[in-house]
């Protein structure tokens, strides 16, 4: 029976490989900046873990060079440099990214830089650009909560101090960092943008956003913010949509769409061979809450979702990408397991815009299928896993990896720190090779 199951799964992998033959098969491993700060402040440690990654079947590594604090891990002249984290000081005798690129290339692996774009502060540590630079403190997003307008640095239940993506000064600052990074490392294979989005549905309600929206809508908002939405009464007041709610969603999505295309043009001008990538969540039915339409422009969400306007389709951006990796962050792997989703699984969904339902797309298989359906082959898709969700369940992790390979162009694993801490190198190798 086991041989039959393995044969069927091999056929499934082979079939998907044939379908996605136009896209390169990749197994991508993420190296988070702060979680691995001490580990990758040592050159020998970088080499050791690249060897481990290569042996497991990893083809591409993603080095996080701009974590949520807005500081960077390379010698920038624009952004503050992170030379210390959690009491650990970085060894300044070598450049981490230069070592990553040289050593990975020697092993036949590709290297991408990751940058957290529209965020510049760590709320749990009161650290980062919006905390240390008074001139940039005004860039933080202003949230419309039931208790009123609240700057995100005052929302200590959230660790990311997100910025207002609509502000032109924010966009130009973040773009200048991206351009500097690409110029500094011409041998780098790619860049993957992260947090190119709004904080959530409650953001951003600053005066700047109101003015920009009014310009887009070509009319003043008479009742602010009630014409966008308001709150009902009760212990957990629900949002009540206003007459401009859908238009507001449309405009926010245009903001993100335009930045994605502007950044691509600027970075490709510097390095035409650069792989231009993006990371988002896979939960498209609720991802409008963060102002992102990662689908293909050939897909019309207005036919399927009540929150989409007729113009929402225009602000899709899959066609802009050379690489698209998604968070298929669910413990349940197969669609058949959706019926078994319990409150414990739902409580683990802490990502922005992630819903609480039990539909098929709240599984690894279902979410991967949905992403491919909406991207329509316009960009290679790499289904991603959050390793920590499988803690104590190594076989479920292996099963999830195989599912990512079966239903996308490979797999993305976040993060190496969890593989190290749980000692799951054999499980990683099995999931990527069996």
Automatic annotation (TrEMBL):
A UniProt-annotated Pfam family: DUF4985
Chain ranges of the DUF4985 domain: 303-430
UniProt KW keywords: Signal
Source superkingdom: Bacteria
Signal peptide, first to last residue: 1-21
InterPro entries linked to this entry: Divisome_Glycosyl_Hydrolase, DUF4985, GH, GHL10
Domain Glycosyl hydrolase-like: from-to ranges: 42-277
PANTHER family in alphabetical order: GLYCOSYL HYDROLASE DIGH
Name listed for the protein in its UniProt record: Alpha amylase family protein
Species annotation: Chitinophaga defluvii
């Amino acid at each position: 029976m086991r041989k039959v199951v393995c044969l069927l799964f091999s056929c499934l992998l082979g079939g998907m490989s044939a379908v996605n033959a136009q896209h390169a098969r990749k197994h991508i491993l993420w190296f988070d900046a702060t979680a691995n700060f001490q580990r990758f402040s040592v050159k020998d440690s970088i080499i050791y873990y690249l060897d481990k990654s290569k042996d497991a079947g990893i083809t591409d590594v993603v080095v996080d060079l701009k974590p949520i604090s807005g500081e960077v891990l390379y010698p920038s002249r624009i952004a503050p440099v992170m030379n210390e984290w959690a009491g650990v000081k970085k060894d300044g005798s070598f450049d981490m990214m230069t070592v990553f690129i040289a050593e990975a290339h020697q092993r036949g692996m590709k290297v991408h830089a990751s940058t957290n774009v529209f965020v510049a502060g760590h709320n749990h540590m009161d650290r980062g650009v919006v905390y240390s630079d008074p001139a940039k403190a005004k860039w933080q997003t202003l949230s419309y909560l039931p208790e009123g307008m609240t700057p995100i640095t005052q929302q200590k239940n959230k660790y990311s101090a997100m910025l207002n993506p609509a502000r032109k000064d924010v966009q130009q600052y973040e773009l200048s960092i991206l351009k500097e990074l690409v110029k500094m490392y011409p041998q780098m294979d790619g860049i993957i943008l992260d947090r190119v989005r709004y904080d959530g549905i409650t953001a951003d309600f600053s005066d700047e956003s109101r003015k920009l929206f009014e310009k887009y809508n070509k009319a003043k908002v008479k009742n602010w913010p009630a014409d966008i939405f308001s709150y009902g009464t009760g212990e957990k007041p629900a949002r009540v949509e206003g007459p401009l709610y859908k238009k507001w969603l449309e405009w926010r999505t245009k903001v993100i769409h335009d930045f994605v295309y502007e950044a691509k043009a600027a970075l490709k001008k510097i390095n035409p061979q650069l792989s231009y990538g993006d990371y988002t969540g896979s939960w498209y039915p609720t991802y409008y809450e963060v102002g992102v339409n990662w689908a293909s422009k050939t897909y019309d969400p207005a036919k399927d979702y009540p929150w989409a306007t007729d113009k929402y389709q225009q602000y899709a951006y899959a066609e802009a990408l050379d690489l698209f990796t998604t968070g298929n962050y669910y413990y349940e792997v197969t669609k058949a397991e959706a019926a078994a989703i319990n409150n414990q699984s739902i409580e683990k969904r802490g990502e922005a815009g992630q819903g609480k339902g039990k539909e098929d797309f709240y599984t690894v298989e279902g979410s991967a299928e949905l992403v491919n359906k909406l991207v329509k082959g316009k960009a290679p898709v790499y289904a991603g896993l959050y390793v920590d969700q499988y803690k104590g369940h190594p076989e479920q992790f292996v099963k999830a990896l195989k599912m990512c390979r079966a239903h996308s162009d490979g797999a993305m694993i976040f993060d190496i720190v969890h593989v190290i801490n749980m000692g799951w190198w054999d499980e990683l190798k099995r999931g990527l090779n069996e």
